[in-house]
């Protein structure tokens, strides 16, 4: 494969365990910044209308390829792993077909293919409904993984099919999404695979923002298990069972995020995908999780050059400018202690007596709010101190207070809780991370 200056190396080591993992931010200029996710993140929730509207809009800009498997390989620039061949499960050996050659009628692949075609017909989509047979006369190789994945999250694909019903060939678009999704996951799951183009890196960083570090690891490790089970499956039912197990690992929200990003990636480039990300539903909440989970700004996801995934860490190489922005977001210039060092008090009244006015046109602002609940949980001195209370322009302070009092579903994932109520259940570290992000976003007019 032709080498490129920018590559994505995604490596899955055996097992994922439950130990805390770190994120390393690397520019190649100095020692990597090490970032530990401050709290466990849940996949961003996308409701029915949001998801369907998003994929319908993305579909208007995409043209389904005639050969979706081949198109997906070109998209991520990976070598062909399937085609006209038999796949020998015990030895994992591939035997190519000669022109005009056919498998024996009693072969596992032929029977699996017949069951697949019968399944397509039962679901009202007669023929090769998932385009698994465009490169092979039977369901084998990566086609097994694609079929298992379709069985894992069939409901999400059905939602997409309904959304595409007015297109000339809705099944072709669903097949394109499925093959993009499958090829990307296969790429993540194979050790020592080097992929040119930054599209996979942008997709990985965005996906982590949407589902969180822990869920991301679970998805990759789970798919590795799915691949092994699909390789060993000798019947359609065994393949379905493997898909069902992975479907439970993935869950509906992660599956929708995956499908939406795969849809956005079709026929795109790394900069093109990055430009679409801020316009996707749930992007505001994903932006918060990007900074608290991996220490990067979602707006700078296009500057992700490489991503390396191991059992212990994610290493993200960014352009120097992107890392500078990340460093500011992580440290929060407004939160630095004054020259006389860290000081803490038992009440806000004592803080004001010691520190005086915030300055002309400014007001004191608590990064972690001084609510009774927070003071009870964390202690007054954790809230009333020089690292948590910073001077802000009055206008900015008022806008942040209004934001906290409002319901922001894109940020919190809730249609009933205010931002303040949502934050009140989270850890001190998570509240502080969000508070720093809120200062920056409101100051720049993003929120």
UniProtKB/TrEMBL annotation:
Key words, A-Z: Signal
Protein's recorded name: Lipoprotein
Keyword Signal among UniProt keywords: yes
Taxonomic superkingdom: Bacteria
Signal peptide (residue range): 1-19
PROSITE patterns the UniProt entry points to: PROKAR_LIPOPROTEIN (PS51257)
Organism: Archangium lansingense
Entry keyword annotation includes Signal: yes
């Amino acid at each position: 494969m032709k080498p490129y200056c920018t590559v994505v190396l995604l490596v899955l080591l055996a097992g994922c365990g439950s130990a805390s993992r770190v994120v390393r931010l690397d520019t190649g200029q100095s020692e990597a910044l090490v970032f530990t996710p401050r709290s466990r993140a849940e996949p961003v929730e996308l409701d029915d209308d949001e998801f369907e509207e998003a994929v319908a809009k993305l579909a208007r800009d995409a043209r389904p390829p005639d050969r979706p498997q081949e198109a997906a390989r070109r998209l991520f620039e990976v070598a062909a792993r399937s085609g006209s061949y038999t796949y020998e499960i015990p030895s994992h050996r591939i035997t190519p077909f000669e022109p005009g050659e056919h498998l024996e009628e009693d072969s596992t692949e032929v029977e699996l293919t017949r069951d697949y075609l019968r399944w397509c017909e039962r679901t009202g989509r007669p023929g090769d409904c998932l385009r698994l047979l465009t490169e092979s006369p039977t369901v084998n190789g990566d086609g097994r993984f694609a079929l298992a994945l379709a069985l894992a999250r069939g409901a999400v694909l059905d939602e997409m099919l309904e959304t595409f019903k007015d297109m000339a060939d809705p099944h072709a678009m669903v097949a394109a999404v499925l093959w993009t999704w499958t090829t990307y996951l296969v790429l993540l799951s194979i050790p020592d695979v080097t992929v040119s183009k930054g599209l996979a890196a942008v997709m990985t960083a965005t996906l982590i923002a949407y589902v969180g570090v822990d869920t991301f690891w679970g998805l990759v490790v789970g798919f590795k298990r799915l691949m092994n089970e699909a390789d060993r499956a000798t019947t359609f039912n065994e393949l379905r069972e493997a898909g069902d197990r992975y479907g439970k690992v993935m869950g509906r929200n992660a599956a929708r995020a995956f499908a939406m990003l795969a849809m956005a990636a079709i026929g795109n480039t790394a900069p093109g995908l990055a430009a679409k990300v801020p316009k996707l539903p749930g992007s505001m909440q994903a932006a918060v999780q990007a900074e608290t989970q991996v220490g990067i700004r979602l707006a700078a996801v296009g500057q992700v050059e490489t991503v390396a995934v191991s059992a212990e860490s994610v290493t993200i190489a960014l352009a120097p400018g992107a890392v500078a922005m990340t460093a500011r977001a992580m440290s929060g210039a407004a939160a630095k202690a004054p020259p006389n060092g860290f000081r803490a008090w038992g009440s806000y009244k004592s803080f004001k007596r010691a520190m005086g006015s915030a300055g002309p046109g400014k007001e004191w602002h608590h990064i972690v709010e001084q609510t009774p609940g927070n003071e009870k949980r964390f202690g007054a001195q954790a809230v009333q101190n020089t690292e948590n209370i910073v001077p802000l322009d009055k206008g900015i302070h008022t806008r942040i207070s209004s934001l906290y009092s409002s319901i922001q579903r894109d940020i919190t994932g809730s249609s009933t809780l205010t931002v303040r109520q949502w934050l009140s259940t989270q850890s001190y570290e998570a509240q502080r991370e969000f508070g720093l992000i809120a200062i920056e976003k409101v100051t720049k007019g993003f929120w």
